[in-house]
Specification:
Structural class: alpha+beta
Helix content: 10-25%
Strand content: 25-35%
Distance between the termini: 74 Å
CATH topology: minor pseudopilin epsh fold
Number of helices: 2
Largest sheet: 4 strands, antiparallel
Number of strands: 8
Strand order of the largest sheet: 3-2-1-5
Shape: elongated
CATH architecture: 3-Layer(bab) Sandwich
CATH class: Alpha Beta
Length: 160
Amino acid sequence: MRTIGAGGFTLIELLVVLTVIALGTAVVLPRLIIRPKGPKPEVVTFLERQRARAITQGRTVQVWGGAQGFDADDEIADAAPNVSRQADRHFDLPRDTRLIALKPPPPAYADRALIAVFYPDGTSIAGAFDLVEKTAPGLTEPRLHIDITPMQGEIIHAQR
């Protein structure tokens, strides 16, 4: 005599096992396929330091960009151009490189553009800008595009 249910697996059990295998593959496979990125551009490292400074100091940090480079100021009104620059709050643009602010729109009242605002909780306003290289008078060649995500404050960069 045979007993009922003594051997094999039910359809539900097989589907659960296949689902677990599929989810595990979906999580692991992209990490195996994605090639490691090259070295991180210095400007991205600078922006990451400013985000970390906002988190550790518990205060808002604003990053302004202009023809000379980037300045991270705690207050907009106190950001005078002749104030001595601290090394951890300033980044010089490479020679023959200029900044084109895309988001937020650059202010009309100054030669600087607000590039990023990092809040104490690690979030940010959305920001995007290009660094372009001057190849000849009147000609520019895209060099680096940077996006800053608003909710996570993540800095995403792409070489052009």
